[in-house]
């Protein structure tokens, strides 16, 4: 069995203060995909660096901003950072680790909540990402794109779809993009294992006790090819942990 977890840590140093290593001790993932490190590699707290995991990071040029990483019990046989688009790669948004059994990506899509300029960049990111991801569907090895896509796909994935229909993260063109990703051959593993179940969210605003009231959004995904979907045994959003405004999303595969 192989357990893959994904977490937008909203600052790896903050997540550490909130019990990140305790979560690892208890949840025991084999591979951990991290997003929004908000730190340079040398700023990752020593207790995390000293875990019995191999670590690889792709940090942003801008200090305290973005950044992705992958921790794994097994050492990857290959690591690639970025997708060859300068502005995306400078923001540290995509990293790949290849193992004997599969290929794993940690993805942090831009947020468009700060205004039109960032929303336009978010859509450009998505336009670059789709063909980049598609090429890996043809590989022999199973593929998993894990991370914070900053989009709720359907009304079931957001606590108030009517009120949020014009909000970044639930715009019609963003939702259509997720549909295009699925139509290209990817599978939303968590939703596949929880079909039709409402109120399953992975992010909650820090405002208005949103998590206590479970007024959230499901914006963190494991997107895989069909082969890995068939191996998925269990999918859990680990809400009990308050490591971040996101919860870890963990999926166990029979491989």
TrEMBL record:
Transmembrane segments: none annotated. PROSITE patterns: AP_NUCLEASE_F1_4 (PS51435). Its EC number is 3.1.11.2. Residues 6-246 form the Endonuclease/exonuclease/phosphatase domain. One of its GO terms (molecular function) is double-stranded DNA 3'-5' DNA exonuclease activity. Its cofactor is Mg(2+). Gene3D superfamilies: Endonuclease/exonuclease/phosphatase. InterPro entries: AP_endonuc_1, Endo/exonu/phosph_ase_sf, Endo/exonuclease/phosphatase. It holds the Pfam family Exo_endo_phos. CDD domains: Nape_like_AP-endo. PANTHER family: AP ENDONUCLEASE (PTHR22748), DNA-(APURINIC OR APYRIMIDINIC SITE) ENDONUCLEASE (PTHR22748:SF6). NCBIfam families: exoDNase_III (TIGR00195), xth (TIGR00633). Belongs to the DNA repair enzymes AP/ExoA family. This is Exodeoxyribonuclease III. It comes from Fodinibius salsisoli. The lineage of its organism: Bacteria, Pseudomonadati, Balneolota, Balneolia, Balneolales. The gene is xth.
